[in-house]
Amino acid sequence: MKQLLKLSAATLLVVGALGVQASTLSDVQAKGHVSCGVSKGLAGFSAADSAGNWTGVDVDVCRAVAAATLGDAQKVKFVPLTAKERFTALQSGEIDMLSRNTTWTITRDASLGLNFAGVNYYDGQGFMVKSSLGVSSAMELSGAAVCIQAGTTTELNLADWGKANGIDYNSVVSDTNAQTLTNYDSGRCDVLTTDASGLYSMRAAANDPSEHVVLPEIISKEPLGPVVRQGDDQWFNIVRWSLNAMITAEELGVTSATVDDVSNNPERERLMGRSGSTHEYVGLTPDWTYQIVKQVGNYSESFERNIGLNTPIGIARGVNALWTDGGILYSPPFR
Amino acid sequence: MKKLILDSIGKSQHRGLNFRDLLYNNEARAFFFQVVTFILVVGLFYTAIGNLFHNIEERGINTGFTFLKNRAGFDILPFLGNYLVDYTPESSNFSVFYVGLINTLVVAFIGIILSTLIGLLIGIARLSNNYLVAKLAGGYIELFRNIPILLQILFWYNLFINIFPHPKQSFAFFDIMFLNQRGLYLPKPIPEDGFMVVVLALLVGLIASYFVKKFYKKKHELTGVHTSTWPFSIAFIIGLPIIVFLVLGSPLQFDISVLGKFNLKGGMNVVPEFLALTFALSVYTATYIAEAIRSGIEAVDKGQKEAAAAIGLTPTQSLKLIILPQALRVAIPPTINQYLNLTKNSSLATAIGYPELMSAFGGTVLNQVGQAVEILAMAMLVYLVISLFISILLNYVNKKMAIQGR
Fold first, then answer.
1. Where are the domains of chain B?
2. Does domain A23-122+224-325 have CATH number 3.90.1150.10?
3. Complex ipTM above 0.95?
4. Which of A47, A62, A297, B197 is the most buried (most CB within 10 A)?
5. CB–CB of A145/A190 below 8 Å?
6. Cβ of A174 under 8 Å from any chain B Cβ?
7. In whole angstroms, what is the distance from residue B99 CA to residue B78 CA?
8. Are B184 and B257 in contact (CB under 8 A)?
9. Chain A residues inside the 8 Å CB shell of B347
């Protein structure tokens, strides 16, 4: 009888727990960290060093959310995921947000129970080949073996592009970035295709970057951004506006070094939480955006620190410059 | 239960149907608790599944199986599944399921055959009187059994793509077969009109040799005269189809691979992912099969071998006629388990990108449509069916091999 009681108690608990869904913000604040899904290692976007410190532009979005919600950009638990695992991990609640160079598409936004909270890097799919192959355009690639990572929009774009241009290829699909790179290095395939940013990142990590050429063709739009679960609008707003805060800070010229300076620009004062009540709308403390800029920096700082021209990855701002500088980076107003 | 109620009714005739009797009746109590547990378990599953679908809907995730009809839109590494299903990115997600299934079955089938052959060889070698052979077999088993299979798959795959040359410097065998880091390129047979007759001849040959064998076996049992049947077998199985083939004017062409700009083109490409996976699984599973065979042989009484020697059988005859038939009785059940393990382990192929069920369907399709519950349930069902099928088949063999009372 005792066992029976135990069993029914356990049953009630399990059934009870299945039905309960707390808000992500209170969950995060209760456990004291943000669980953020990142890649298994893509230099400049999300990669851990030998000491286990994560850096990268995707990592900085996680850190910005932690700074906003917990006041400490270090309170992030990074969960490295393969491309295939990422959506399931977010859907199941294993992670609070996903910031893993993930392309925003209608299928993902509308059918996976997920919402994209913005774009933190505008990318496009490109091709990399070994210089020794003597190929200068992707149109010459008919008959080649192409290395791709499984579970990406890359696979779909490649098939569409191949069909549209009458290019026949063999796709060699791997689970992880590392195996894709090994396949390419060993010569299992002739071409590596992924987002251009990823190609630059991999080329920078190669023994001799000059042995590899990134071909000029960009065959797709790949807006990469953070993703949250559908159905928690407060959390969605927090992630979206944490990213927007970084972009607006760049627009207003606020950096982590100058964030404490008082100015008479009303928008800047609003951004820093010294006037207005934006914090109440998202349910955070008035200094939430201040903490983001103070601890993580503005968008430009994050970009230049991780993937800018002075880093080994060496990507120019290009389309990722502010709209005022000829790019397409644009945050709705902080008002 | 019927008996139980009848019992209580029987008792009730003496003392009236008493609730206390039922309460203190061990059988009744046991039955009551089993019913309660059953209801609770079913109720738990029912609630959990209901909850799951409720949550999935609440979060706006698609449900149902309509995704199977949608265009897949991605390419799959060309191998057997692609050719048989005629797969292109325009095919449906359901075709991907078939491609994955075929690729899984090929690995399981070839892996089971290879691992049995290696296992049999190593198992017998392990008990060899030759010290070196026995120790080598023992070393093989200890080495491959004690390294995780995933690691072995990755090792053989990366070894393969790194030690073999680029397609431009392929190893060529008589200029019809090529081996390079992109796999083995075999000539692709293209049957022409009349080739079916050759296949028919082969079939006739097989049936004929079966009956010849049966005839001489009966003769052996009746008269004790032993006749070798292998010359007949060769004549029927190999000779007959060749004669028919030549008479019909060789109705078969071969498409041989030629070097294109990047790759070898044409022919039949056996991809390195398949080679590495099948090799790793066979080598690994063979260690367990070898141990099963060894334990089977050791389970045969020593007297059997001595008796075989005493009546003048050669060691080979004694192994083939006396030891193995008895050893297999003991070895078959654990070997079935290994076949099942091999089939299930084939899903590790996802690590090297061999497009089997879990990689192509449970991986790529899952990621593109995001319906984890449906897709994984389908994949689980397939592995369940394959495993049960192997199980049933080998249990039948096991029954056949078991000692029959005469």
1. 2-58, 80-162+272-401
2. no
3. no
4. A62
5. yes
6. yes
7. 10
8. no
9. none
Tokens representing B269 are 């490409």
Quick one: which H or E segment has residue A64?
helix A57-70
Partners of B33 on chain A (C-beta within 8 Å) are 4
Judge whether A215 and A138 are in contact, CB under 8 Å: yes
Residues paired with residue B180 on neighbouring β-strands, in sequence order:
B183
Chain B nearest-CA residue for A157 = B74
CB contact under 8 A, B265 and A143: yes
Domain boundaries, chain A: 23-122+224-325, 125-220
3-state SS assignment for residue A187? coil
CB atoms A4 and B55 under 8 Å:
no
Query: Is-above-0.90 flag for pTM?
Result: no
N-terminal to C-terminal alpha carbon distance within chain A: 63
Query: Per the structure block, which two tokens stand in for A88?
Result: 């399931």
CATH 1.10.8.50 describes domain B80-162+272-401:
no
Whether residue A189 contacts residue A147, with contact meaning beta carbons closer than 8 Å, is answered with yes
Tell me which residue in B43, B56, B262 faces A145 most closely, judged by beta carbons: B262
Of B40, B58, B181, the CB nearest to A11: B40
CA dihedral B191, B196, B197, B200 (to 10 degrees): 130
Specify the 3-state DSSP secondary structure of B141: helix
- Find chain A residues with C-beta within 8 A of B260's C-beta: 143
Sheet with B183-186: strands ordered across: B171-173, B177-180, B183-186, B268-270
Cβ atoms of B300 and B376 closer than 8 Å: no
CATH class of the structural domain A125-220: alpha beta
Which chain B residues are Cβ-neighbours of A187 within 8 angstroms?
A: 161, 166, 181
* Six token digits for residue A296: 């993580």
Taking only residues 130 to 149 of chain A, the set having a beta carbon closer than 8 angstroms to any beta carbon of chain B reads 133, 141-145
The two structure tokens encoding residue B303: 């007297």
Q: Do B89 and A163 touch (CB under 8 A)?
A: yes
**pLDDT tens sequence across B44-79:** 999 988 888 887 777 777 778 888 888 888 888 888
B40 contact residues in A (CB cutoff 8 A) = 7-8, 11
The answer to whether B89 contacts A143, with C-beta atoms less than 8 Å apart, is no
CB contact under 8 A, A88 and B62: no
Which residues of chain B lie closer than 8 angstroms to A154, CB-CB? none
Tens of pLDDT, residue by residue over A226-247, are 999 998 999 999 999 999 999 9
Gyration radius of chain A over CA positions: 22
